[in-house]
Amino acid sequence: MASGTAAGGSRPMLTMVKALNTALRDELSNDPKVLVMGMDVGKLGGVFRITDGLQKDFGEDRIIDAPLGESGIVGSAVGLAIRGYRPVCEIQFDGFVYPAFDQIVCQVAKIYNRSLGKVRMPLTIRIPYGGGIGAVEHHSESPEAYFAHTAGLKVVTCATPSDAYWMLRQSIASDDPVIFFEPKRRYWTKGEVDLRATPAPLHKARVVRSGRDATLVAYGPMVATSIQAAEAARADGRELEVIDLRSLSPIDIGTVVESVEKTGRLIVIHEASVNLGMGAEVAARVQEKAFYSLEAPVLRVGGFDTPYPASRVEEDWLPDVDRILDAVDRSCAY
Amino acid sequence: MTLHGQISPEPDLIQLLTPEGVRVSHPDFPLDITDDEIKALYRDLVLVRRFDGEATTLQRQGELGLWASCLGQEAAQVGAGRALRVQDMAFPTYREHGVAWCRDIDPITLLGMFRGVSLGGWDPNENNFHLYTIVLGAQTLHAVGYAMGVLRDGVVGTGEDDRDTAVLTFFGDGASSQGDVNEAFIWAAAGNLPVVFYCQNNQWAISEPVERQTRVPLFQRASGFGFPGIRIDGNDVLACLAVTRMALDEARSGQGPTLIEAYTYRMGAHTTSDDPTRYRLSDELETWKHRDPLERVRAYLVRDAGVGQDFFDSIEAESERLAERLRDACRSLPDPTPLSVFDYVHTELTDELAEQKADYSAYLESFEGSEPADKSQAWPLTTVGGEH
Questions:
Q1: What is the domain class of A13-192 according to CATH?
Q2: Is B187 exposed, middle or buried (0-12, 13-18, 19+ CB in 10 A)?
Q3: pLDDT tier for residue B369 given thresholds of 50, 70 and 90
Q4: pTM of the model
Q5: What are the pLDDT digits (tens) for B52-74?
Q6: A69/B contact by beta carbon, under 8 A
Q7: DSSP structure class, residue A21
Q8: What is the Cα–Cα distance from A307 to A309, expressed in whole angstroms?
Q9: CB contact, 8 Å: B88 with chain A?
Q10: Which domain holds residue B29?
């Protein structure tokens, strides 16, 4: 059923950009009701080229260059969904989603509930997010907690090309609305994508590295950073378990709890500001479910509670290997 | 010449039935309609006014948390509602009780929403009438997206009357200031979409007069977006029917969007929580009483169509039966069960929600016959607030 088999057989090495592009292409081929809509998604192929070549192959009626307005993109996608379509909206950058916030929170998230299950909202809203690319303001934000807080939405994020491919396909196929966060600084990372694999469930976390001394929970752009931190810790004789949360709503807390029962220590890492972020929720749930397993307080490593800074200082602001290791030290010293 | 000398004066309304009940013809908007059809419209108007009034009464009796009355706007709504074909789709605000009536939505369903037993709950695709939308103007974008779907389904401009489809969306003078409404205009124009924007200018957005929203007549905004706009007497059911029918016909045939401004008046309060005596003069109300949408049809039927008292008596009796049915049905609407809040959050219950539901269920069962504290006094039904 996958079309991206030309180069590299059924297990090609793809950038995340190409993996996402292939996922869109395969879902567009599978289901004539799938539409892609957003700004510059047509001839340009999107500012990150995620939709490159799609309009040429699927036409202007299915790859829709929308007028410039995020509320309009999402609001019209709601209407298309009511009419039986399955729109995939592209929001150009994280910091531009807010004009669509009302449509997402009040309509996308609630119409299924308001209609007592009679109207489904099979929308996927793709949002490139996170920093580390030297951008101007509003192009580096991590707004995932706003959406994870909203009942009726599902929120996921990928960390690898393989997850990018499969999780996007699963999101598009889902009858629930999914906010799909793409870690833009990992767009050009290559990885193997098994196009014939049986993918893991969309809302299941994954242990990407096992260890016994402490657990690192991360998602999206911070998974790679956490793996680097775990490799560095090994040199100090510490074995860190790394979990890619993958789904931010619902959260697969069971996988995290199982790990904490083994390691006794937990550090949650994300780019978003720590105040009321995903780390707060993970920490709260883990202390509810694994209180007696904890050897130390759950720690959070994240952005400070400041506006995202100017790019020349963003690398200081963003969590990195050293800040993660510092938290590991504090946890182990407790 | 000055740039600012160009704003045109308030134009005349399109009118086919005067407030005195005299049929007048308009060269651009001929309406071929029989007296029997006018009698049917009159029946709609009377029954809508009756159930709307009954709902206000039920709110006063504590049976509804809130009601947003459409008193005074019946013609604007029935005229538009009866212009729709079966296959057309309507996207209402929360005050389109007259359109709901024309789309065969049982009024008791609307009452349920304002009583607080549901958030809507009807199937929009069953009667092609979307759920009431409370956030102002949001539904105009849904209409635009639906119209994009209609276009992609190839049911515009086929020439087949029972296939060609249009979308009709409602909003008010207040919502015309919303970004979503303006984005919807842009989407509709850019895509030449089969959608008709139907603005009921009822002169008031809660306490703010229409002058607070605009310095040009609202229908004129359409020209800036690149499609026709027209103002009609919103209290003249025949003008509303004729012009909406024409706009929908043009949308179905592929000619694109229209903005209709139905010039009318909100005779009642914004909602039952509102007190209009704080912000408008009774003189204004008296003026509009002379333009009542029902009286002019009745006057026409009696004087020019020779309709006898029997007809009016039978409508009156029917409205009595409707009111009685609604009173009984409203009082016996079942409250949702506590655990029902977990239904229809997602298409399948997530593990997280299953756990919350199980915990809450166990909590409820832990009372073992002793009732949890009575929560019924926590929110007096009569003081729940409203939207704009």
A1: alpha beta
A2: buried
A3: confident
A4: 0.95
A5: 999 999 999 999 999 999 999 99
A6: yes
A7: H
A8: 6
A9: no
A10: 9-331
Q: Does residue B358 share a domain with residue B216? A: no
Respond yes or no: is residue B266 known to be catalytic. yes
- Residues of chain A neighbouring B152 (CB-CB closer than 8 A): 35, 61, 85
**Domain range summary for chain A, segments of one domain joined by +:** 13-192, 206-333
Contact residues, chain B, for A82 at CB < 8 Å: 124-125, 130, 142, 145-146, 149
Of B91, B126, B135, the CB nearest to A102: B135
**Domain tally for chain B?**
2
Q: Is the dihedral of CA B278, B280, B281, B282 positive or negative?
A: negative
User: Closest partner residue to B344 among A81, A83, A113, by Cβ?
Assistant: A113
Kindly state whether residues B55 and B95 are assigned to the same domain. Answer: yes
Same-domain status, B159 and B232? yes
Q: What gap in Å lies between CA A96 and CA A93, rounded to an integer? A: 5
Q: Which CA distances in Å does B342 have to A285, A295, B41, B335, B348?
A: 20, 35, 42, 15, 10
Query: In A, residues 210-249, which contact B (CB 8 Å cutoff)?
Result: none
- Residue of A139, A149, A203, A270 with catalytic role: A139
Residue B147 forms contact with A (CB below 8 Å)? yes
Tell me which residues of chain B, numbers 187 to 246, contact chain A at a CB-CB cutoff of 8 Å.
Answer: 187, 190
- Tell me the nearest-neighbour CA distance from A172 into chain B, angstroms: 14
Does some domain include residue B378? Answer: no
pLDDT in tens, A190-246: 999 999 999 999 999 999 999 999 999 999 999 999 999 999 999 989 999 999 999
Q: Which of A269, A170, A197 is nearest to A229 (CA)?
A: A269
Of B232, B281, B316, the residue nearest B26 (C-alpha): B232
Rounded CA separation B85/B164 (Å): 9
Task: Retrieve residue B266's tokens.
Answer: 């909100």
Q: How confident is the model at residue B386 (pLDDT cuts 50, 70, 90)?
A: very low
Active site residue B388: no
Output the pLDDT for position B50: 98
Asked whether residue B101 is assigned to any structural domain, the reply reads yes
Domain A206-333 class, CATH top level: alpha beta
Residues of chain A scoring pLDDT < 70: 1-8
* Cβ-nearest to A75 among B119, B141, B343: B141
Q: Minimal Cα–Cα distance from B131 to chain A, Å?
A: 7
Tokens of A109: 């998230």
